[in-house]
Specification:
Blueprint (H helix, E strand, L loop, with lengths): L1 H18 L16 H4 L13 H4 L10 E9 L6 E11 L4 E11 L3 E17 L2 E16 L2 E2 L6 E2 L2 E16 L3 E8 L5 E2 L9 E2 L3 E11 L2 E11 L2 E12 L3 E8 L3 E9 L4 E10 L2 E12 L8
């Protein structure tokens, strides 16, 4: 009885997550990886300065001075059994910068969505005040449903899954230390998942174009803005800002026309950084997220 009630609650939460009108009802909607990025209201395309750049703008990997591991955990809508996890590794190499990541979103015993990514980035122009980097990400997206019992026939049904390959392309421009501009074209080819019979041709993983700009008016303060175009009828505007104190603590806030408002903070130590954020945007309640960033290795000459 308890297991049945819990599964029903998770199923309803999952339906709300996937069918909420603001997100147009598609798989892989819970894709806001990382924590600092969500604290900026998802206005992170022109910043992309940690290992989550693999998702937001792979070209940002070219600006990282040290290798970094990032681990993130989230409880979407504060529903037990519903979780989102992210693990990534970014490394500056002699010829380029590279990153690998895994993002998981799922409801226990019901649904699992996994994205595995491999990214490469490098500078292609570094002259005067301008620096230009490009990046590319190859992704394997997989969605699967667990075994279940058909209520109409009482038959046990084996779980089903489907996987597709897609890619991202990105660019990041820096002008001095104050201005940054970024663009990311995600999910090129818009693969379609058709797991449920009668779903009218399946559900596409939509191609998304993100354009971003950021202005750092002093070393402790930065503001950013993104415009995200999913299709002709859906454009999102995201705005965020951050203020840091003594390189050991930072606070940030953001607002997204799609996700709502977010507030976050960072505690920065020499060997690690802890990021926290609260996102209040959906009928099911707030989402709480935490991540830890662990830099390692010696600083590269190319990173800034």
């Amino acid at each position: 009885m308890i297991r049945t009630a819990r599964s029903a609650l998770l199923f309803m939460a999952l339906q709300a997550a996937l069918l909420y009108p603001a997100t147009a009802g598609a798989y892989f909607e819970e894709s806001e990886v990382g924590v600092r990025s969500v604290g900026f209201g998802r206005a992170f395309t022109a910043i992309a300065d940690d290992a989550s750049a693999i998702h937001w703008n792979a070209a940002g990997l070219a600006g990282m001075a040290r290798s970094q591991v990032l681990l993130a955990y989230s409880r979407p809508y504060n529903v037990e059994g519903l979780q989102s996890n992210y693990l990534s590794l970014a490394m500056p190499l002699s010829f380029a910068s590279a990153g690998i990541s895994w993002h998981h979103f799922g409801a226990a015993d019901i649904l699992s969505e996994d994205t595995f990514s491999l990214a490469l980035a490098r500078d292609i122009w570094d002259s005067g005040p301008w620096r230009v980097a490009v990046g590319a990400t190859g992704k394997l997206a997989r969605i699967g449903f667990a075994d279940y019992t058909d209520r109409t026939t009482s038959d046990d049904v084996s779980g089903i899954s489907e996987s597709h390959v897609t890619a991202d392309a990105s660019i990041l421009l820096r002008h001095g230390s104050r201005f940054r501009f970024g663009a990311n074209l995600a999910n090129i080819g818009s693969p379609s998942f058709d797991l449920v019979d009668g779903s009218s041709g399946g559900t596409d993983l939509p191609t998304v174009l993100r354009l971003g700009a950021a202005f750092q008016w002093n070393p402790e303060s930065i503001i950013s803005m993104d415009i995200q175009q999913v299709d002709e009828d859906r454009t999102e505007v995201n705005v965020g800002g951050e203020v840091s104190f003594f390189k050991s603590f930072a606070i940030r806030a953001g607002i997204s026309s799609d996700l709502g408002a977010s507030v976050g903070a960072t505690i920065q130590a020499r060997r690690w950084g802890l990021d926290l954020v609260t996102l209040a945007n959906r009928p099911l309640g707030a989402s709480y997220r935490a991540s830890i960033r662990i830099p390692f290795g010696s600083a590269s000459e190319g990173g800034r």
